[in-house]
Amino acid sequence: MRYVSAFGRFWWDFVVGDDWRVAAGVAVALGLTRLLTALGANPWWLLPLAVALLLLAAVHRVAARSG
Amino acid sequence: MTSTVILFLAVFAASAVEAVEALTIVLAVGVVRGWRSTLIGVGAASVVLAAVVAALGPALAHIPINALRFVVGALLLAFGLQWLRKAILRASGYLPLHDEGVAFERERAEAGAAGREASSRMDWYSFTVAFKGVLLEGLEVAFIVVTFGSTQGHLGLAAAAAAAAALAVVLVGLVVRGPLQRVPENSLKFAVGVLLTSFGIFWGGEGAGVEWPGSDVAILAVVAFVALFSLALTRVAHRRRLAPTPAAG
What we know:
The complex is a heterodimer of chains A (67) and B (249).
Chain A: H1 2-15, H2 20-38, H3 46-65
Chain B: H1 2-33, H2 36-60, H3 65-91, H4 100-113, H5 124-152, H6 155-176, H7 185-207, H8 218-242
Protein backbone atom coordinates (compact mmCIF):
# COMPACT_ATOMS: atom_id res chain seq x y z
CA MET A 1 0.00 0.00 0.00
CA ARG A 2 2.90 2.31 0.87
CA TYR A 3 4.43 1.70 -2.57
CA VAL A 4 1.13 2.38 -4.35
CA SER A 5 0.75 5.68 -2.53
CA ALA A 6 4.41 6.60 -3.20
CA PHE A 7 3.92 5.73 -6.89
CA GLY A 8 0.78 7.89 -7.06
CA ARG A 9 2.53 10.75 -5.27
CA PHE A 10 5.48 10.56 -7.68
CA TRP A 11 3.20 10.91 -10.72
CA TRP A 12 1.16 13.67 -9.07
CA ASP A 13 4.35 15.66 -8.31
CA PHE A 14 5.68 14.86 -11.76
CA VAL A 15 2.70 16.03 -13.81
CA VAL A 16 0.73 18.38 -11.54
CA GLY A 17 3.48 19.72 -9.26
CA ASP A 18 2.93 22.15 -6.41
CA ASP A 19 0.26 24.30 -8.08
CA TRP A 20 -2.73 22.12 -9.01
CA ARG A 21 -4.62 25.16 -10.31
CA VAL A 22 -2.35 25.29 -13.38
CA ALA A 23 -3.17 21.66 -14.27
CA ALA A 24 -6.88 22.29 -13.62
CA GLY A 25 -6.72 25.37 -15.90
CA VAL A 26 -5.08 23.27 -18.64
CA ALA A 27 -7.89 20.70 -18.37
CA VAL A 28 -10.58 23.40 -18.60
CA ALA A 29 -8.87 25.12 -21.58
CA LEU A 30 -8.49 21.84 -23.50
CA GLY A 31 -12.09 20.85 -22.73
CA LEU A 32 -13.34 24.22 -23.95
CA THR A 33 -11.25 23.95 -27.13
CA ARG A 34 -12.68 20.49 -27.82
CA LEU A 35 -16.22 21.77 -27.22
CA LEU A 36 -15.78 24.73 -29.58
CA THR A 37 -14.31 22.60 -32.39
CA ALA A 38 -17.23 20.17 -31.98
CA LEU A 39 -19.54 23.15 -32.50
CA GLY A 40 -17.74 23.97 -35.76
CA ALA A 41 -15.41 26.77 -34.61
CA ASN A 42 -11.63 26.85 -35.01
CA PRO A 43 -10.44 28.32 -31.67
CA TRP A 44 -6.67 28.11 -32.34
CA TRP A 45 -6.12 31.22 -30.19
CA LEU A 46 -7.70 29.73 -27.05
CA LEU A 47 -4.82 27.58 -25.77
CA PRO A 48 -2.09 30.27 -26.20
CA LEU A 49 -4.35 32.75 -24.42
CA ALA A 50 -5.11 30.26 -21.63
CA VAL A 51 -1.40 29.53 -21.14
CA ALA A 52 -0.64 33.27 -20.84
CA LEU A 53 -3.40 33.74 -18.27
CA LEU A 54 -2.44 30.63 -16.28
CA LEU A 55 1.22 31.72 -16.10
CA LEU A 56 0.25 35.25 -15.12
CA ALA A 57 -2.04 33.98 -12.34
CA ALA A 58 0.52 31.43 -11.09
CA VAL A 59 3.32 34.01 -10.84
CA HIS A 60 0.97 36.59 -9.32
CA ARG A 61 -0.08 34.12 -6.58
CA VAL A 62 3.53 33.58 -5.50
CA ALA A 63 4.37 37.29 -5.75
CA ALA A 64 1.31 38.23 -3.65
CA ARG A 65 2.27 35.65 -0.98
CA SER A 66 5.80 37.07 -0.80
CA GLY A 67 4.38 40.53 -0.06
CA MET B 1 11.15 19.43 -40.98
CA THR B 2 10.84 22.51 -38.71
CA SER B 3 9.01 20.59 -36.00
CA THR B 4 11.53 17.73 -36.27
CA VAL B 5 14.45 20.10 -35.59
CA ILE B 6 12.59 21.71 -32.67
CA LEU B 7 11.72 18.22 -31.38
CA PHE B 8 15.42 17.26 -31.37
CA LEU B 9 16.40 20.50 -29.61
CA ALA B 10 13.61 20.19 -27.03
CA VAL B 11 14.50 16.59 -26.12
CA PHE B 12 18.24 17.38 -26.11
CA ALA B 13 17.85 20.42 -23.81
CA ALA B 14 15.42 18.71 -21.42
CA SER B 15 17.66 15.63 -21.21
CA ALA B 16 20.76 17.77 -20.63
CA VAL B 17 19.13 19.49 -17.65
CA GLU B 18 18.15 16.16 -16.07
CA ALA B 19 21.55 14.64 -16.87
CA VAL B 20 23.33 17.50 -15.07
CA GLU B 21 21.25 16.82 -11.94
CA ALA B 22 21.84 13.05 -12.15
CA LEU B 23 25.58 13.58 -12.72
CA THR B 24 25.80 15.71 -9.55
CA ILE B 25 24.36 12.84 -7.47
CA VAL B 26 26.50 10.16 -9.13
CA LEU B 27 29.72 12.20 -8.79
CA ALA B 28 29.11 12.95 -5.10
CA VAL B 29 28.49 9.29 -4.24
CA GLY B 30 31.24 7.94 -6.52
CA VAL B 31 33.93 10.33 -5.20
CA VAL B 32 33.19 9.58 -1.54
CA ARG B 33 32.33 5.86 -1.58
CA GLY B 34 34.00 4.47 -4.69
CA TRP B 35 32.90 3.91 -8.26
CA ARG B 36 32.12 0.18 -8.62
CA SER B 37 28.73 0.00 -6.88
CA THR B 38 27.86 3.52 -8.01
CA LEU B 39 28.37 2.63 -11.69
CA ILE B 40 26.44 -0.63 -11.28
CA GLY B 41 23.56 1.51 -9.93
CA VAL B 42 23.83 3.85 -12.94
CA GLY B 43 23.86 0.88 -15.33
CA ALA B 44 20.84 -0.77 -13.68
CA ALA B 45 18.83 2.48 -13.81
CA SER B 46 19.79 2.98 -17.49
CA VAL B 47 18.53 -0.53 -18.33
CA VAL B 48 15.19 0.17 -16.57
CA LEU B 49 14.84 3.48 -18.43
CA ALA B 50 15.63 1.90 -21.82
CA ALA B 51 13.02 -0.81 -21.08
CA VAL B 52 10.40 1.87 -20.25
CA VAL B 53 11.05 3.66 -23.56
CA ALA B 54 11.16 0.38 -25.54
CA ALA B 55 7.90 -0.85 -23.99
CA LEU B 56 5.87 2.36 -24.02
CA GLY B 57 7.00 3.83 -27.36
CA PRO B 58 5.68 1.10 -29.69
CA ALA B 59 2.57 0.62 -27.47
CA LEU B 60 1.62 4.28 -27.95
CA ALA B 61 1.93 3.88 -31.74
CA HIS B 62 -1.33 1.83 -31.67
CA ILE B 63 -3.38 4.72 -30.24
CA PRO B 64 -5.20 6.91 -32.82
CA ILE B 65 -2.99 9.93 -33.53
CA ASN B 66 -5.50 12.64 -32.53
CA ALA B 67 -6.33 10.96 -29.21
CA LEU B 68 -2.60 10.55 -28.57
CA ARG B 69 -1.91 14.20 -29.41
CA PHE B 70 -4.73 15.36 -27.13
CA VAL B 71 -3.44 13.36 -24.13
CA VAL B 72 0.23 14.11 -24.82
CA GLY B 73 -0.61 17.80 -25.36
CA ALA B 74 -2.43 17.91 -21.99
CA LEU B 75 0.49 16.20 -20.19
CA LEU B 76 3.10 18.42 -21.84
CA LEU B 77 1.10 21.55 -21.02
CA ALA B 78 0.79 20.62 -17.34
CA PHE B 79 4.42 19.47 -17.15
CA GLY B 80 5.87 22.30 -19.28
CA LEU B 81 3.99 25.01 -17.39
CA GLN B 82 5.49 23.67 -14.14
CA TRP B 83 9.01 24.08 -15.54
CA LEU B 84 8.25 27.49 -17.00
CA ARG B 85 6.53 28.80 -13.86
CA LYS B 86 9.46 27.75 -11.67
CA ALA B 87 12.03 29.15 -14.13
CA ILE B 88 10.19 32.51 -14.20
CA LEU B 89 9.95 32.59 -10.39
CA ARG B 90 13.67 31.75 -10.07
CA ALA B 91 14.75 34.32 -12.68
CA SER B 92 12.67 37.02 -11.01
CA GLY B 93 14.00 36.25 -7.53
CA TYR B 94 10.90 34.72 -5.94
CA LEU B 95 12.50 31.26 -5.69
CA PRO B 96 16.19 30.51 -5.01
CA LEU B 97 18.28 29.37 -7.99
CA HIS B 98 19.20 25.67 -8.06
CA ASP B 99 22.89 25.41 -7.16
CA GLU B 100 24.67 22.23 -8.32
CA GLY B 101 27.65 23.04 -6.09
CA VAL B 102 25.46 23.08 -2.97
CA ALA B 103 23.63 19.91 -4.11
CA PHE B 104 27.00 18.18 -4.65
CA GLU B 105 28.29 19.09 -1.17
CA ARG B 106 25.02 17.95 0.47
CA GLU B 107 25.11 14.58 -1.34
CA ARG B 108 28.79 14.18 -0.48
CA ALA B 109 28.20 14.85 3.22
CA GLU B 110 25.32 12.35 3.32
CA ALA B 111 27.37 9.72 1.48
CA GLY B 112 30.27 10.19 3.90
CA ALA B 113 28.03 9.90 6.97
CA ALA B 114 26.24 6.74 5.81
CA GLY B 115 27.47 3.44 7.29
CA ARG B 116 29.18 0.70 5.30
CA GLU B 117 28.56 -3.02 5.67
CA ALA B 118 31.97 -4.60 6.15
CA SER B 119 30.92 -8.11 5.11
CA SER B 120 29.50 -7.12 1.72
CA ARG B 121 31.56 -6.45 -1.43
CA MET B 122 28.70 -4.49 -2.84
CA ASP B 123 28.15 -1.01 -1.35
CA TRP B 124 24.35 -0.90 -1.35
CA TYR B 125 24.25 2.75 -0.28
CA SER B 126 26.14 3.83 -3.43
CA PHE B 127 24.09 1.49 -5.61
CA THR B 128 20.75 2.70 -4.22
CA VAL B 129 21.54 6.43 -4.34
CA ALA B 130 22.98 6.24 -7.88
CA PHE B 131 20.11 4.00 -9.09
CA LYS B 132 17.44 6.23 -7.56
CA GLY B 133 19.07 9.46 -8.76
CA VAL B 134 19.47 8.29 -12.36
CA LEU B 135 16.05 6.60 -12.43
CA LEU B 136 14.12 9.58 -11.06
CA GLU B 137 15.87 12.16 -13.26
CA GLY B 138 15.75 9.73 -16.18
CA LEU B 139 12.01 9.09 -15.89
CA GLU B 140 11.37 12.71 -16.88
CA VAL B 141 13.63 12.18 -19.89
CA ALA B 142 11.87 8.89 -20.74
CA PHE B 143 8.51 10.66 -20.48
CA ILE B 144 9.65 13.40 -22.89
CA VAL B 145 11.26 10.90 -25.30
CA VAL B 146 8.14 8.71 -25.41
CA THR B 147 5.62 11.56 -25.72
CA PHE B 148 7.58 13.60 -28.28
CA GLY B 149 8.79 10.56 -30.21
CA SER B 150 5.46 8.77 -30.50
CA THR B 151 3.41 11.88 -31.28
CA GLN B 152 5.76 12.91 -34.08
CA GLY B 153 6.51 9.34 -35.20
CA HIS B 154 10.22 9.85 -34.46
CA LEU B 155 10.86 7.74 -31.37
CA GLY B 156 14.38 6.84 -32.58
CA LEU B 157 15.30 10.49 -33.13
CA ALA B 158 13.94 11.50 -29.70
CA ALA B 159 15.89 8.67 -28.02
CA ALA B 160 19.04 9.67 -29.94
CA ALA B 161 18.66 13.30 -28.80
CA ALA B 162 18.37 12.14 -25.16
CA ALA B 163 21.38 9.81 -25.49
CA ALA B 164 23.44 12.58 -27.14
CA ALA B 165 22.58 14.98 -24.29
CA ALA B 166 23.51 12.42 -21.61
CA LEU B 167 26.79 11.65 -23.41
CA ALA B 168 27.63 15.35 -23.79
CA VAL B 169 26.99 16.01 -20.08
CA VAL B 170 29.07 12.98 -19.00
CA LEU B 171 31.95 14.02 -21.29
CA VAL B 172 31.92 17.59 -19.94
CA GLY B 173 31.70 16.13 -16.40
CA LEU B 174 34.79 14.00 -17.09
CA VAL B 175 36.69 17.01 -18.43
CA VAL B 176 35.88 19.34 -15.52
CA ARG B 177 35.99 16.44 -12.97
CA GLY B 178 33.26 17.97 -10.84
CA PRO B 179 29.62 19.08 -10.74
CA LEU B 180 28.63 21.29 -13.66
CA GLN B 181 28.25 24.51 -11.72
CA ARG B 182 28.65 26.84 -14.68
CA VAL B 183 25.78 25.38 -16.67
CA PRO B 184 23.12 28.11 -16.86
CA GLU B 185 20.59 25.63 -15.49
CA ASN B 186 17.72 28.06 -15.00
CA SER B 187 18.09 29.46 -18.53
CA LEU B 188 18.04 25.90 -19.89
CA LYS B 189 14.97 25.08 -17.80
CA PHE B 190 13.32 28.26 -19.07
CA ALA B 191 14.01 27.26 -22.69
CA VAL B 192 12.81 23.70 -22.09
CA GLY B 193 9.67 24.99 -20.35
CA VAL B 194 8.96 27.22 -23.38
CA LEU B 195 9.40 24.27 -25.80
CA LEU B 196 7.35 21.76 -23.75
CA THR B 197 4.54 24.28 -23.27
CA SER B 198 4.58 25.24 -26.98
CA PHE B 199 4.39 21.61 -28.14
CA GLY B 200 1.65 21.06 -25.54
CA ILE B 201 -0.35 23.95 -27.03
CA PHE B 202 0.27 22.74 -30.59
CA TRP B 203 -0.50 19.03 -30.11
CA GLY B 204 -3.25 19.63 -27.53
CA GLY B 205 -4.93 21.97 -30.03
CA GLU B 206 -4.54 19.53 -32.94
CA GLY B 207 -5.86 16.68 -30.79
CA ALA B 208 -8.89 18.80 -29.87
CA GLY B 209 -9.60 19.40 -33.58
CA VAL B 210 -7.97 22.82 -34.09
CA GLU B 211 -6.55 23.62 -37.53
CA TRP B 212 -3.51 25.82 -37.01
CA PRO B 213 -3.11 28.76 -39.40
CA GLY B 214 -0.05 27.93 -41.56
CA SER B 215 -0.17 24.25 -40.53
CA ASP B 216 3.13 22.94 -39.05
CA VAL B 217 4.88 26.33 -39.35
CA ALA B 218 2.49 27.59 -36.64
CA ILE B 219 4.70 25.85 -34.05
CA LEU B 220 7.33 28.57 -34.62
CA ALA B 221 4.78 31.30 -33.90
CA VAL B 222 3.60 29.43 -30.79
CA VAL B 223 7.21 29.08 -29.52
CA ALA B 224 7.83 32.80 -30.18
CA PHE B 225 4.62 33.80 -28.39
CA VAL B 226 5.29 31.64 -25.31
CA ALA B 227 8.95 32.77 -25.15
CA LEU B 228 8.19 36.49 -25.48
CA PHE B 229 5.30 36.38 -23.02
CA SER B 230 7.41 34.47 -20.47
CA LEU B 231 10.34 36.89 -20.84
CA ALA B 232 8.02 39.87 -20.39
CA LEU B 233 6.43 38.24 -17.32
CA THR B 234 9.88 37.55 -15.84
CA ARG B 235 10.87 41.17 -16.35
CA VAL B 236 7.71 42.54 -14.74
CA ALA B 237 7.94 40.07 -11.81
CA HIS B 238 11.64 40.93 -11.30
CA ARG B 239 10.87 44.66 -11.19
CA ARG B 240 8.05 44.07 -8.74
CA ARG B 241 10.36 41.97 -6.54
CA LEU B 242 12.94 44.78 -6.46
CA ALA B 243 10.42 47.58 -5.92
CA PRO B 244 10.54 49.00 -2.35
CA THR B 245 7.55 47.96 -0.21
CA PRO B 246 5.59 51.00 1.05
CA ALA B 247 5.99 51.50 4.79
CA ALA B 248 2.98 50.56 6.91
CA GLY B 249 0.95 53.35 8.59
